[in-house]
Design brief:
This protein has about 240 residues and is α/β, with parallel strands linked by helices. The protein has two domains: about 170 residues, no CATH class; about 70 residues, no CATH class. It has nine helices and eight strands.
């Protein structure tokens, strides 16, 4: 199933609207409310019914999360030793580095995006036809032990869609609109990675509110028309003193 950006946005809007009513209750329908960041852990566990756990997924940390649509197995070879993890239907396994001492706060934004990405895979799978779902489940249910690269390759065609949908779940357009109405009336200007003091402060507050990285925020704000790019030679910050 190949979906357009617009279709993915519509799926995210419908899903997060339903979730917000489920999680926030009457607050979600108030016309004058503030932006409601998506609590992605509750979205995964309480709304989608996914089981989230942590394990070492790769020797070099390149695999941040995995999920599957039927019971299967996942193998990791490290220093010549192969380990096999059971990967259950409706389960998400995130890399254990996210909960390692000293990393919980530092990698919070990356963990949230990874979980949103895996949630997006599960949502997209549920939208497939029954024949496609049955075929996919049959391939997994053979309980073949997949390597990290093999498991990822099976979903390569869906990776872009999962990234787009995951970002739209973490940063729903309605919530971004509400936040930017409060923070900034004009688009932020990105001068090749440099910002005026005011725009830099707005971006920091936006990232803190939604629990996302600067990169994720910038991509999403650009998509929604809240950020424009200019060459560095045009950079002028009126608050800088020379």
């Amino acid at each position: 199933m190949i979906l357009s950006q617009r279709q993915l946005e519509e799926i995210a809007a419908s899903t997060t609207k339903d979730f917000n009513r489920f999680f926030f209750g009457d607050e979600a329908d108030k016309p004058d409310r503030s932006a409601l960041p998506t609590p992605i852990d509750q979205f995964a566990k309480n709304y989608l019914g996914l089981r989230v756990s942590f394990a070492r997924l790769s020797p070099d940390g390149s695999i941040c999360g995995v999920t599957a649509y039927a019971d299967t197995e996942y193998k990791i070879t490290e220093l010549g030793i192969t380990r096999t993890l059971a990967l259950k239907r409706n389960q998400v396994i995130l890399d254990e580095s996210f909960i390692r001492s000293g990393n919980v706060q530092r990698l919070c934004a990356k963990r949230r995006f990874t979980l949103a990405h895996e949630c997006a895979h599960q949502i997209l799978f549920q939208l497939e036809s029954e024949d496609v779902k049955a075929s996919c489940e049959m391939r997994y249910s053979a309980r073949t032990a997949y390597t990290p690269r093999e498991l990822k390759t099976r979903e390569d065609w869906n990776e872009w869609q999962a990234n787009v949908l995951g970002a739209a779940i973490l940063l729903p357009q309605k919530e971004v609109d509400l936040a930017m109405r409060r923070f900034e009336e004009t688009p932020l200007i990105n001068y090749e990675g440099r910002y005026s003091y005011g725009d830099h402060l707005t971006l920091r507050l936006f990232c803190r509110l939604f629990g996302v990285s600067k990169t994720t925020a910038s991509i999403r704000l650009r998509q929604l028309g809240y950020m424009v790019d200019r060459p560095l030679c045009e950079y002028v910050d009126p608050l800088e003193v020379w």
